[in-house]
Specification:
Number of helices: 6
Shape: globular
Low-confidence stretches: 133-137
Order of helices and strands: HHHEEHHH
Radius of gyration: 16 Å
Number of strands: 2
Distance between the termini: 53 Å
Largest sheet: 2 strands, antiparallel
Mean pLDDT: 85
Number of domains: 1
Length: 137
């Protein structure tokens, strides 16, 4: 039988898979309210951050620079108010989530993903006026 995964590559792939899945779930929340950055964007950002975390080259710097660039593209000023801040902040948090999962911190990563989802979903219940604003943007 051929072993396609050498050493701990299967465990490393699990880290990447979890990062992509959790990023996708968080992106689903953004997508369901009509945001342009949704499942694919969030899954890829989380996966990319996890992959950078696995590599010994670069560390946090390329992740921070990339997320800053993407986040800035999500924030716009329209008709006297700022739009996209929550989505940009969620994308920033998903990058950090990917880094944590890339380091193999599964429990912390899982709890962090749940906390991000809790913030995004439950804050609409606690602050319905924010949800109305989200629907506009």
């Amino acid at each position: 039988m051929v072993n396609f995964f050498a050493g701990n590559e299967l465990e490393l792939f699990l880290r990447l898979l979890l990062a992509a899945v959790f990023g996708w779930l968080i992106g689903l929340e953004r997508e369901t309210i009509g945001k342009t950055a949704g499942t694919r964007t969030f899954a890829l950002v989380s996966l990319g951050a996890a992959l950078f975390s696995l590599s010994s080259v670069g560390g946090v710097q390329p992740i921070a620079a990339g997320i800053g660039f993407l986040g800035a593209g999500l924030i716009i000023f329209r008709e006297g108010h700022i739009e996209g801040l929550t989505t940009a902040a969620a994308l920033w948090a998903v990058a950090a989530l990917g880094m944590i999962l890339g380091q193999g911190l599964y429990v912390l990563g899982t709890l962090t993903a749940l906390l991000i989802l809790l913030i995004l979903f439950l804050m609409r219940i606690i602050h319905p006026e924010c949800w109305k604003e989200d629907k506009k943007t």
